[in-house]
Amino acid sequence: MSKFKSFLQRKGVDMTWKAYFVDALGAMALGLFASLLIGTIFQTLGDKTGIEAFETIAKYAKAATGAAIAVAIAYKLGCEGLVLFSAIAVGIAGNELGGPMGAYVAVIVAIELGKMVYKETQVDILVTPAVVIISGVLMAYLAGAPIQKVMTALGTFIENATQMQPFLMGIIVSVVIGSVLTLPISSAAICLAIGLGGIAGGAATAGCCAQMIGFAVLSFRENRWGGLVAQGLGTSMLQMGNIVKNPRIWIPVLLTAAITGPISTCIFHLENIPIGSGMGTCGLVGPIGIYTAMPEGGANMWIGMGLVCFVLPAVLTWLFGLILRKIGWIKEGDLKIDC
Q1: Does the pLDDT value for residue 259 go beyond 90?
Q2: What is the span of the domain harbouring residue 61?
Q3: pLDDT band at 216 (very low <50, low <70, confident <90, very high)
Q4: Which of 151, 186, 207 is the last residue of a domain?
Q5: Counting Cβ atoms within 10 Å, is residue 333 exposed (0-12), middle (13-18) or buried (19+)?
Q6: What percent of the chain has pLDDT over 70?
Q7: Which residue of 109, 223, 264, 268 has the smallest Cβ count within 10 Å?
């Protein structure tokens, strides 16, 4: 067993939760951003402006989804050479047969096997691509459809539950997905994997915006304008280290998410598309997703978007934070980040 562990270590195969569910999932999200997400934005631009060039860009960007996922995951997990290049075919197959999560599973299996054989034979140029592509496509073929069915069923269940119980599920979805956004796990990848759209997607967006805008405003006295932009348009994950030191700094943001979630579902009935549901205000993708999902939403959508995504997270988190600062649960410097 020790020899096998040494072999895996030498080949760069790290079978850990962090590698597969933090690093790989985060990389998967980046691959999605570089293909499906940007393609969706250009598709919206094309639909609204009638400019054919935008639609052409969208078409090819979306078509690259599986390949982008594969390259992103392979790169993050330390693949190089033939393993990295061969993973592209696996990503395409995985996405075609099982969606983004199918690509995720197929690519991980394929590249880890590929690492084990890479440069171990005299005919590496044949062996490595064959092992990667055969194992990956086989995994995609066997597991892709079941994975896609499970993910779709889960997303449908959450969306239906939110429609039937908009207040309760608005709270749950907002708080949970928002928390995942701040944790070192990709909320965007999860939302897309389960197809979390519609009114549940709106609640997820509310929670993500509460985390990002909330932490940006809550920590303004420590981080000033740089922190406001880094967290408000970047990621609330920057506060993860501070949360570990003092978990109480998370309370104002979580309370805000618990309020804005049901406001989104019960009052404004905001919807989103899966690729935008877990993004919040990162690059303004969440609001763009709401507009994409509700192109005829009118004034109700714009008012709801403004309040749920920006105004309420800023005001409520600031108020809750003020209370916690006064009672000593949050102290000066607790929210300081390097930005």
Answers
A1: yes
A2: 7-151
A3: very high
A4: 151
A5: exposed
A6: 99
A7: 109
Q: Are residues 57 and 185 in the same domain?
A: no
Residue 87 and residue 81: Cα distance in Å, rounded? 10
Average pLDDT over residues 79-84: 94
Is the domain of 210 the same as that of 318?
A: yes
The per-residue pLDDT for range 62-76, each reduced to its tens digit, is 999 999 999 999 999
Q: What is the CA radius of gyration of the chain?
A: 21
The total of other beta-carbon atoms located within 10 Å of residue 241's CB is: 11
Say how far apart CA 307 and CA 256 lie, in whole Å: 12
Number of domains in the chain: 2
The pLDDT of residue 235: 83
For tokens 């009638």, the residue is 50
276: nearest Cα among 174, 198, 214, 210: 198
Tokens of 85: 């290049």
Ranges of beta strands (E only) in 165-323 are none
pLDDT at 246: 94
Q: Are 206 and 109 members of one domain?
A: no
The answer to whether 302 and 217 are in contact (CB under 8 A) is no
In this predicted structure, what is the pLDDT of residue 291?
Answer: 92
Q: Are 248 and 324 in contact (CB under 8 A)?
A: yes
Q: Give the list of residues 6+ apart from residue 23 with CB closer than 8 angstroms, or none.
A: 76, 77
